[in-house]
## 1
Amino acid sequence: MSFKKFDKFIDFILLTLAIAPIVFIIILQVLTKPESTGITVEGARIYFTIPMPIQPLPITEAQVNSLAVLITIFSLCLYLTRNMSVKKPTKRQHLAEWIVEKCDGLVKNNMDPYFKNFGPFIASILGLSAFSSLLSLFGLFPPTSDINIVGGWAILVFILITYYKFKCGPIHYAKSFCDPPLLTPLNIISEIATPISMAFRHYGNILSGSVISVLLATGLAGLSNLLLGWLPGFLGDFPFLRIGIPAVLSIYFDVFSGALQAFIFAMLTMMYVSGGFPAEDFVARRSRLSKANKK
Amino acid sequence: MQTLDIISVNIWHIVISLANLVLLFLIIKRFLYKPVKKVLAQRQAEIDKNYENARQAEQGALNEKLRWEEKMSTAKKTADDMIANAASTAQLRGDRIISDAKTKAEGIVRRAEEAAKLEIKNAHAEIKKELVEVSSELAEKLIKRELSREDHQGFIDSFIDGLGDGDE
Amino acid sequence: MLEIAVGIILGCCALGAGAAMIAGIGPGIGEGNAVAKACEAIGRQPECKGSVTSTMLMGCAIAETTGLYALVIAILLIFVAPNLFVNILLKTIGK
């Protein structure tokens, strides 16, 4: 009996751990955000700066928020996979299994069978990206609208692409650039453009959402002032039109766009990694090597 | 409070976010995928086991059925054999009874015939005796009538021959 | 004189931002085409709706990239470039 109570207590702690970081960053923002005046489209606010060798490292909202997202996802993982049972799956176990099966299905549909263990990576990209973008629902700074964050992910993807291209040896890798020999510089440029375009696509979509939200909010405040400014006292200053209307756009720019960009980033990762990997050559080479070993 | 420029590249930020993604990958692999995959594998194993059990049970039932069918067929055969046996035994016994009865009847008939023959013989013998008596009486009478000796002898002989014919 | 120079810088930055967003036409037309074809495909084969939709979204997202480059340039021109250019101007003047 007491064990069951203890069990519920752990669940409660995990859920609190999942929600606490978000609440923490909301409180942090409320405490530190200066009053905005007019249209301000700015990058992340710097809390403090740590001196580092090459470049000073400013700890910004983006860093804190992405760390909060990390902790949230970690706690959610622990919460979802607690008390798993084979016979009687609970609702959260169903959810965990659904997530795992969906990600595996995506990987299976879009990638070579060689990459069947790519599920967790795709799941982590989807989760991190979607949660980060959805932070803007709470009026927080979405880490994905910082070019450094998505740039880091894109560089990781680029490293993966190059790693799998190198699987067949450096000669094969070099040869893949000279497919039509005249186009070698273009091929190199397009190879380098891959992570840049991925990073800018994600960053630009989220940023455009927040820019348009800011523009709309400012515009609605001005319109409200113009239309309802004759109301006496406090009522005249209060931007009534800002209630409700931005929420509709928020559904598109925050929820839909955020989720879609997460999905697209994951899809592009899968396509680039799987497309760059020369599966047939790799299989041929491996069979040749195994034959040579047998001899 | 200071803010970053809207596009500002910082190497440490890039490294940190890359590390974050790797960290999250490890977290998800360890804390989401591993337990879920374990449970799924267990469930699969259980399903497989159930299927195996069902298959075995079905196989067992099939074997039992086959065995019963075999038994039934052998039982039928046995019954057929039994019936055939009984029928043949009965036939045999009936035949024997009939043949016994026939032999017995033949015996009875033969005995009866023998008896009849004996009777006839007796009767013949009696008749012969009577005839002899009668003929001797007749002969006495004839002799009394005084016939010649040759006539007498010839007459008796022919008479006795005639009797002998009738005896055969 | 300095005011006129700064004004010209700001005005040209804004003009450049506006001109950069002309690039929004291309992705608009392209995505419109893509969606039209996707609708046709769904009309022809309604059972393929799921895969057609996800492929179309992928294609749209990739087609949108050029537009987003333009957007990034425009944002840079509005929010980042004026400071930078004015600083350069002041440096060259020597103030």
## 2
Amino acid sequence: MNEAAIAHLTPNQRAWKRFRKNKPAVISAWFLAALVLLALLWPAFSHPRVAALLPKPLTYSQEAISDAQFQPPSGQHWFGTDVHGRDSLSRVFFGARISLLVGAVGAGVSLIIGVLRGAIAGSAGGRTDNYMMRFVDILYSLPSIVFVIVLFTTFEKTLKQWLNTAFATPMGAKAPLIFLFIGLGAVSWLTMARIVRGQVLSLRTRNFVEASRVLGASHARILWKHILPNVYGIIMVYLTLTVPAIILYESFLSYLGLGIQPPQASWGSLIAEGAHQINPLRIYWWLLVYPGAMLVTTLLALNFLGDGLRDAFDPRGSR
Amino acid sequence: MYFLKRILTMIPLLLIISFMAFALIRVAPGGPFDRERKPASPEIERALRAKYHLDEPLVKQYFRYLGGVLKGDFGPSLKYRNHTVNDIIKQGLPVSLALGGMAFCFAMGVGIPLGFYTAVRRGQWGDYIGSFFALLAFCIPAFVVGPVLIMIFAMKLQWLPVALWHSPLHFILPTVALGLYFSGRIARLMREGMTDTLHAGFITTARAKGLSESAILWKHAFRLAVLPVVSYSGPLLADLLTGSFVVENIFRIPGIGVFMVNSTINRDYTMVVGLVLLYAVLLLVMNLLVDLSYSLLDRRVRYE
């Protein structure tokens, strides 16, 4: 590709070009797409009509309890079975649904809070900005995980009761999930806010923004037309890097028994189950290794993807 | 002067943090005596509440607590009745600090050389393989690597003890489990810092003067490249203490981390606030030390 042809592309198009050359990142993107698709379709597999078309090991329901306890991986159960004779493969994919959902929604919540706060602080400037930054500084020096645990054990019961009275009864069981969304999003927005603020501050003084202001454009128009399109690459990068952080947080909480409650499962709670089954007599390695490997692979893919996006959208970092 | 100001601003910060922790845990439903053997008569519960001043207005309780803290007394634990919070911290903190310190050394000892190597070998196979392992370490949480290490080295091979905290042999697995994630993180920071530094003008100058490559890398580049790692080492210590909940839980280590989770669940008010405060103080002091060491490593940094 010669220089003249590149010059006709917008910065975002050039970034995509760079991204597509990054093999690990592209492979990770495909892996994640396949994982999300499988996780979405998984519940349909146990439906009788669909099940007839598929190999048997794919069609177990995650709740089906059987007498086949602690079976090692085999042709029947690819990932083995657990203490209640449930199929681990199915449990791992149902866990993937929750882990990925929490990661995505949590990152979404952190995105909204972070971008709003960053944009307001960056465009209002002055005293408002100063106060808001002090607030972020205070939150930074609070141990965030302690904060989450306190918050979680503190308000979970309240929220559950409230949901039970406000809606029909089954909503109460969803309380931990909703809490994970809000709580994890609420502690993960700090970095996003800092980065967006920095970007907005530097963009505000650029010539094309000044020119637009001279031409009489309103605040909203400048923010919407000139500033947001320029920060969107950076936002996407940090969004991709926030997702693994939140998945990790969630599995950490679920491992401690504070997150997802049985019979629902996430990768963290599956790993916890596997870890509790360790004993000197028999080693049920598959209960630990498979969910652990899935978690690690997914985190790895998300990080490769995030690094690839950053290298593509932030040329300074890709020297 | 600058540092004096920094220390002074820590005081309102700690007040805010202690108040937030206190308010949060006290507003929560449930209390420390909920899980007592039932049926405790209302009189007994009333007496208990009166003994620990839980029947007073919240603000009065907060100031009573604050007064104690100023005298160095974090109050009695509401759950472990025969112990004060000071006792529990005195017993657990040395263990947690030892574990955290060893994991810190492990993370630095693995991360800095790995990051240095991958930056120097940039774009070659050594870089790809090294960077992959750094990222892999960064993606394996302690609650995965801990049980896997136990399964391999303690159960299968029987080289190392499964759990507890008695001899140096007991220290190995927990240290690795806790330090691995951070070694990956440090390797990435080090690599980034080193790559940035190697592109700086003064390195080109040094090359032009004809200095040997090792002199350039070690005497000129390293000193500046290690700065991001240094500034991360403050939060790192705090992260190590947080991460130690899990590792202490897995390896049954009698540290302070286990109390953090249990006390919060048990609504052991004094324990929770005491531990949050301890944590915040550690974090703030570490950050201060980091900033101090900054001016030593990079002469261009000056604090007015």
